[in-house]
Each structure stands twice: as C-alpha cells, then as structure tokens.
Design brief:
With 376 residues, the protein is α/β, with parallel strands linked by helices. It has 17 helices and 12 strands. The longest helix has 18 residues, at 354-371. The protein is globular, with a radius of gyration of 22 Å.
Length: 376
C-alpha cells in the first residue's frame, strides 16, 4: 500500500508516531510535514500549505492508496483544495489530541475556548472515512463533548455528529520502542525521581513540586530529573524548584538527544506524572518499558495505559503523591527492588511495542483502502 501522510505539526509525539510507524510498517509512505510551531496557524493554514506541496512536480505525479492526516488538519478544506486524485482517497484522521476537551488556560474555563478549532476537529472527523483515537478515554471524552456542544448551538447542525463519528472510529494506541534489560539497582544511591512532560500548565508541575517539597521536608534523600520541552511562557514554579532542589538535580531541561533521553529513563527509579491533560501518556509508557516504577494519577488515560493496576495509581493530589513517594523510598532503602515490583506495569505496556502496533495499523490501512467508498 502507498500511504500519503500529512503532518501539520511535525514535532514531539506527533513526529515520533509517524517515524515509528514508517520504520516498522510494510507499506510505503510519502510524508509531507510542517514545522511544530504556531499551532493555531497550522490548523488554519495547513490545508492551503499542503495543497501547494501536493502540486509540486516531485509529488503530483505519484499515486496513493490512502490518505493519513493528524488532528491539526482541516481535512474537509484539504479535500476541497486538492485535485480529485487526492480528494477521493480514503482518509484516516488520527487524534493525538483535540481542541474541544484540551484544558482551557483562562480563568473563565470553557468561555475562553476558541470553538473554531474545536469545530475544525469535528468537521475533519466527519470528512474522514476512518477516525483513530489514541485511547478509549480520548474517544469517549471527545464524543461526549461533541454532544454537549451540539446542545449549546443555535440549531441542530451537530445533533448527529457524535454518533456519525463514533461509527467510523476506533482506538489505535501509539507504539513505543523496546529497551534493553535493566540490571538490579543498589539501594546505596538515593531514590531517583523523574518527571518528564511539556513545561506547561496542563501537566501541573506545581502539584509535583508541592509533593516533592513535602517529601523533602519529611527528611527523605532523593535525586531528581525534570525534563521536557519548554516554550515562551514557562510556569514560575520551575525556577523556584531549580533553586530549592539544586543539590539533588541529575538532569534539568529539554533533552534533544534521543539516546540521552532513553539512557535517563533507564537510570531513574520512579516516573511521576501529575498531568491534568493526557490523552494517552507516551512518556509514561516509555518510562515503564525502560524499567521505571510509575506513579500515575488515577484519571484520564492512565488507568487504561496500565490496565487499572492500582499499585501504580495515586489519587491525583500532592499529599497522596508525597505519601506514595515516601513508601517507595522506604522500600528502596530496604533493598526491595522497585524494578521487580514494576513488572506488572511493564507487562501492561508490552502491547504498545512498535512491532505489535505497526502490524495492526498496517492491517487497518489495507482494510480501509480496499473497502471504503470514495467520498462524494
């Protein structure tokens, strides 16, 4: 099969997803992309930009069996701007995230949400032959939000949108790479705690640092790595924490070297998430596969990620997180292997290895390309 893949925001997990699939797929990919910045402009302009790219001589002469796009694409606009050879391709829309249930930064909550982008997601899903979500939590929260939005609108335009999208939707979790076996840790070194996420409000870094402050004041020794991509507006709690925990820091900031990132995952003992927004949890899945003991909030897609294994979930507040860290520090100090204790979590994420995921996605692509009717 010949897959035309268009990625309007080619960076981070969006880029890793397509690169991982291409590497492990039996299909042929032609990938066109735009840089991972100015996401609002990407959503407004991507269809125009890709329509221009598809008219370029090196692409216009190629033929394809299926079109794959991600959630920052306005698929309906793209089909209207492209020639019939592209517009008629059976299409797959992949939701890494969506703009209808992404947490609002403003104090007025939903009143601050720009519904233009949310409606773009809905229209794109209605224009696709197949809609893939990266978790069941993501699909259900999105479709519930579509139904709620339809009841707020001045007419019944979206009254049946959620059910229409559901009938063509499925769950397709992203893949992760394998990690070499990890040796046993010595209890001589303090517990190494890792927090890895975008340095933004929806990942709730303040909750993490509050729990860490309480843990620190209780007298526990630990080492700390805080990594992730940062943008223009970095929450102030990072600078405060950098100063407070300076003597404990192993790594701090963004790791642009993939091997250095993998090495750090295999060095850490505990991976912590405090996210208020997570549609899948690729960093958590990779850390678990690398041998970390996960502490994940009991919400969002996390229970699904680890098959609801309660030992790796906490209630989601800073006090419960601090208490769980204290328990793990005690076990670590007494030479109890956190690596062995995390084995059930590693078994749970085994299904996300790329060799499994890519084979499943390839089969789905074949079914869509051979059976989906042409639009219009």
């Amino acid at each position: 099969m010949r897959v035309l893949a268009l990625n309007p925001f080619h960076g981070g997990s969006h880029r890793a997803f397509l690169e991982g699939w291409r590497l492990h797929s039996r299909h042929d990919f032609t990938l066109l992309s735009l840089p991972d910045r100015h996401w609002k402009w990407r959503m407004r302009n991507a269809a125009i930009a890709f329509a221009d790219q598809l008219r370029a001589p090196q692409v216009s002469g190629l033929s394809f069996d299926v079109l794959f796009v991600t959630d920052m694409m306005n698929l309906a606009e793209l089909r209207g701007l492209c020639g019939p050879d592209i517009a008629r391709l059976p299409s797959i829309l992949y939701f890494h995230e969506n703009q209808l249930t992404y947490p609002s930064r403003g104090s007025d909550g939903e009143r601050d949400r720009d519904l233009h982008f949310a409606v773009t997601n809905i229209v794109s899903a209605l224009a696709a032959e197949a809609v893939w979500f990266n978790s069941a939590f993501h699909r259900e929260s999105f479709l519930t939000a579509v139904e709620e939005l339809s009841r707020r609108l001045p007419d019944a335009t979206l009254a049946h949108a959620a059910e229409s999208i559901r009938t063509r939707s499925s769950i397709c979790q992203p893949g992760i790479e394998s990690f070499p076996a990890r040796g046993e840790r010595t209890s001589d070194a303090p517990l190494h705690i890792l927090w890895a996420a975008r340095w933004e409000h929806d990942k709730q870094p303040g909750l993490f640092f509050s729990a860490l402050d309480r843990f620190d004041r209780a007298g526990y020794e630990f080492r700390l790595s805080v990594i992730g991509q940062s943008y223009r507006d970095v929450p102030a709690c990072f600078a405060t924490a950098r100063e407070q925990f300076d003597r404990r820091i192993v790594r701090w900031g963004y790791l642009d070297d993939r091997q250095a990132y993998r090495d750090l995952l295999q060095q850490a003992d505990v991976f912590v998430s405090t996210a208020a927004h997570e549609f899948f949890g690729i960093a958590a899945a990779e850390a678990i596969a690398a041998g970390c003991y996960p502490l994940l909030p009991d919400r969002l897609a996390y229970p699904e990620l680890i098959d609801s294994r309660a030992a790796f979930l906490y209630s989601g507040d800073s006090v419960s997180l601090s208490d769980r860290l204290a328990t793990l520090a005690g076990r670590h100090r007494q030479s109890a292997s956190l690596h062995r204790a995390a084995e059930p979590a590693r078994q749970a994420v085994e299904r996300f290895r790329w060799q499994h995921v890519a084979a499943s996605m390839d089969r789905r692509v074949e079914a869509i390309a051979t059976s989906a009717p042409s639009p219009g």
